[in-house]
């Protein structure tokens, strides 16, 4: 899965928004992340080009199978690492912020080893 951190964040955000909203649009992503709509538009074009999302004629954004797989993997890492750090006594906001950084750099092998050896 050769994808950069920014793309992973966008895919994860689309996944999260799709659980909260009936449809996801670029403006929803921009509002969620605090980015300009133009920046989100460029990112969506790149994700569409890599076939990680589909954008309908109405502007509704849907994850493809590959986009969903990436988003779910990143989201699982985020949830697990945040909970683990909090359990270790890290302030909840710090845990979320640190998990967001770690989730993008940790290898699949290391993450799976951590999951096998830590019970939440």
Tell me how many strands there are: 2
Average pLDDT level: 94
Strand order of the largest sheet: 1-2
Q: How large, in whole angstroms, is the Cα Rg?
A: 15 Å
Query: Structural class, from helix and strand content?
Result: mainly alpha
Q: What's the shape?
A: globular
Query: Span from first to last CA?
Result: 27 Å
Strand content: 5-15%
Q: What characterizes the major β-sheet?
A: 2 strands, antiparallel
Q: Estimate percent helicity.
A: over 70%
CATH level 4 superfamily of the largest domain:
Winged helix-like DNA-binding domain superfamily/Winged helix DNA-binding domain
Runs in which pLDDT lies below 50 for 5 or more consecutive residues are none
CATH topology of the largest domain: Arc Repressor Mutant, subunit A
What would CATH call the class of the largest domain?
Mainly Alpha
Number of domains: 2
In CATH, the architecture of the largest domain is Orthogonal Bundle
Output the helix-strand order: HHHEEHHH
By DSSP (H or I, 4+ residues per run), the number of helices equals 6
